[in-house]
Structures are given as C-alpha cells and as structure tokens.
Amino acid sequence: MQPTVDVSVAVAMEARRLAEKYGKDYFDAEDLTKIIGVGMNNARQLFCDIDFPTIQIGNRKVVSSIALALWSLKTMQ
Fold first, then answer.
1. Backbone angles phi, psi at 65, to 5 degrees
2. What is the number of other CB atoms lying within 10 angstroms of the CB of residue 26?
3. Is the pLDDT of residue 74 over 80?
4. Against a cut of 0.90, is the pTM above it?
5. CA distances in angstroms from 14 to 23, 58, 70, listed in the order given
6. 64 in helix, strand or coil?
7. How distant is the alpha carbon of residue 5 from its chain centre?
8. What Cα–Cα distance (Å) separates residue 8 from each residue in 13, 45, 52, 62?
C-alpha cells in the first residue's frame, strides 16, 4: 500500500526549505539559475512565460517561494 501525501503540506515544506536555504521568500532570475539549474537567458524567459507565477515590483520580476513550489509541482505532473 502506497503512503498518501498531503500536497498542501508538501508544497508548504518545499517553500519553507527554499526560503531557508536561500535566505529569502522571493526569488529573481539570478536565484532561479541556482535553484532549478537553468541559464540566465532561460530564467529570464521563464519570467516572461504567462504560466509562470511572477510578481512585478517596480521594474523587477520575482516569484515567491510558495508560488515556485506550486509551479514546480504542476509542471512535474
């Protein structure tokens, strides 16, 4: 019998892990290069993707740790 996993708990734990590891709750393109292992051009393209959950603060685009964790889960399915 496979153990059941509460998705909301798993996402919250991953968001907390990311925030603690990188010392912040919001990530920019440079952070994404380290987190998901893509180049800077691909990270910037990701921020322009309509399905990627960005927040614009002034001229800067960022993604919250919880939104990144949710997006990661969606793209893996």
1. -60, -40
2. 17
3. yes
4. no
5. 14, 27, 9
6. strand
7. 20
8. 9, 28, 19, 22
10: which residues sit within 8 A by CB, 6+ positions away?
Answer: 73
Higher-confidence position of 4 and 43: 43
CA distance 61 to 64: 10
CA gap 15, 66 in Å, rounded:
5
Which residues, 6 or more positions from 63, have their beta carbon under 8 angstroms from its beta carbon?
Answer: 26, 27, 32, 47, 52, 53, 54, 55, 71
Side-chain-facing half-sphere of 39: CA atoms under 13 Å: 2
Q: What is the pLDDT of residues 7-62, one digit of tens each?
A: 889 899 999 999 999 999 999 999 999 999 999 999 999 999 999 999 999 999 99
Better-scored residue on pLDDT, 27 or 2: 27
Pair 64, 26: CB distance under 8 Å: yes
